[in-house]
Design a protein that fits this description.
The chain is of the alpha+beta class and about 500 residues long. The protein contains eight helices and 24 strands.
């Protein structure tokens, strides 16, 4: 092998999709991260060694091996380790040529029959590079967490100026980033830019992640094969294939998630002892086109049409079958867009977003009916997308405040998208009045820490005052709990 021209581990390391006996380790070789091709050959592969240890000094290495980083996969490595001990912390690292990667820390899940006393997870979404620094991720890296849920908009497809937008970088970015992402090289380089951020690297190295996408990993508000601009379907499917391929390459995902052209099986299920079942959804790839041309509209026949779906039929059946089979205390659904009804005003003809579950209310009704039929008493929905913190009670009938509460939804704000934000945005009072099941609204950046134990779920809403300058402190702006068997959010 020709010696590498420089340190290939400029994009860090990651782990994810933890099982009781397995975890995926990831890295991407990029000695020149901001150049197309990353300074590596356009064909062939590079041998990458890896080690997994019971200690961070690597005195007790339990597994090691060598995997290829093929040019065809963007010189990425996905090591699907097996035979690990359940509920165990491990450390890992890679080596290529004479270069050694940063050390990552990961953790396996508990055995399916384990009685888990408590578990803590981070909830993240929406990290637009040019709208702010990843200060939240630096703080999250220092949290004591078992894992992280990232629920969409890991990258954005927009053109980025040489100063990195709100970051106002002194060293200008390569001109390559100054156009919208369309082809595979565009998407690969967009991940390289985002992953070059040291705080994002720290958050990946500190915790295993469970990931799913929303729209911006491809293009804003796309629906299945239909782009926001109604591009020719064949043209958009080619773009989607490029985006899906780059997504798989750059995430700690297993081979079954590897895309086949414009199709990728991303929805999947994980058990966390007897404490929780995690159902991770994909509400982009299989959805019907948004009703009434997208945007905000008063609900009507299109939004109520039972033939329209946000999940697709197969994924919906899979989700409801999983509810029926679940024996976990908590059923946690990690997904992209607001599940609970969210009216713009208190008026009878108030508008709702056609891009959220409000625009696919028959889909939501079927899911909630499935919750009831399965006897699920502890539903927790984890969401992103809105660039604000919301905390909702999930109602059997959102138009009747006195109807049964079937679960809770913790909707986490963005890492950086939307710039700094405000604690009380201009619509704060109107929104709370319009939605009596909405218990909390905060427009600042940050993340949520979700704690589960057999008695309750707790959501701690962390906020940062500014992301347009570096180094802002983190604070817990609000905390809510919901008791097992008696769903409904109460201030903690």
């Amino acid at each position: 092998m020709t010696p590498l021209s420089g340190n290939p581990f400029t994009l860090g390391v990651a782990s994810g999709d933890a099982l009781p006996d397995s975890v995926v380790l990831w890295t991407r070789l990029a000695p020149a991260p901001h150049e197309p091709g990353n300074g590596l050959p356009a064909d062939g592969s590079i041998a990458v060694q890896w080690e997994l240890s019971e200690d961070d000094a690597f005195r007790r290495v339990v597994q090691s091996g060598t995997d290829a980083a093929p040019a065809a996969d963007g010189h990425t490595v996905h090591v699907d380790l097996r035979g690990l001990e359940p509920d165990r912390v491990y450390w890992y690292r890679f080596r290529a040529d004479r270069w050694i990667s940063p050390v990552g820390r990961t953790r396996t899940a508990p055995r399916p029959d384990a009685a888990v006393a408590t578990a803590r997870f981070g909830l993240l979404s929406c990290q637009q590079f040019d709208e702010g620094y990843y200060t939240a991720l630096g703080h999250l890296a220092r949290e004591d967490l078992d894992a992280v849920f990232f629920v969409g908009d890991y990258i954005y497809e927009n053109a980025i100026n040489a100063q990195g937008g709100a970051r106002r970088l002194a060293d200008p970015l390569a001109s390559f980033y100054g156009h919208v992402t369309v082809n595979l090289e565009d998407y690969r380089q967009r991940y390289a830019l985002y992953k070059s951020d040291p705080e994002l690297q720290a958050a990946h190295a500190a915790h295993p992640w469970y990931v799913t996408w929303d729209d911006h990993e491809v293009a804003n508000n796309y629906a299945g094969d239909i782009s926001q601009d109604n591009d020719p379907v064949d043209q958009f499917r080619a773009r989607r294939a490029a985006a899906y391929r780059a997504y798989w390459e750059n995430m700690p995902l297993r081979r079954p998630q590897r895309p086949d052209g414009p199709d990728m099986n991303l929805y999947r299920r994980f058990a966390y002892g007897r404490l929780a079942q995690f159902d991770i959804l994909d509400t982009r790839q299989y959805r019907s086109d948004q009703a009434y041309g997208d945007g905000w509209h008063t609900p009507g026949p299109e939004t109520w049409d039972p033939a329209r779906t946000i999940t697709g039929d197969a994924q919906e059946r899979w989700l409801l079958d999983g509810f029926r089979a679940s024996t976990a205390t908590w059923n946690v659904v990690a997904q992209q867009v607001a599940f609970s009804q969210h009216k713009e005003t208190p008026d009878d003809d108030a508008r709702v977003s056609m891009d959220t579950w409000d625009g696919y209310s028959a889909s939501r009704d079927r899911v909630l009916a499935g919750v009831g039929q399965a006897g699920i008493r502890n539903l927790v929905v984890l969401t992103g997308d809105d660039h604000v913190h919301f905390a909702y009670d999930v109602k059997k009938d959102f138009d009747d405040p006195d109807s049964a509460t079937l679960g809770v939804e913790l909707l986490g704000t963005s890492v950086s998208s939307g710039f700094d934000g405000d604690e009380h945005p201009p619509d704060w009072e109107t929104t709370l009045a319009a939605n009596p099941h909405l218990k909390y609204y905060d427009g600042r950046r940050g993340y949520v820490v979700v704690t589960l134990d057999p008695q309750r779920v707790r959501g701690d809403f962390r906020t940062i005052a500014k992301v347009t300058t570096e180094g802002a402190p983190i604070a817990t702006a609000a905390s809510f709990v919901s008791e097992a068997g008696a769903p409904g959010l109460q201030g903690a």
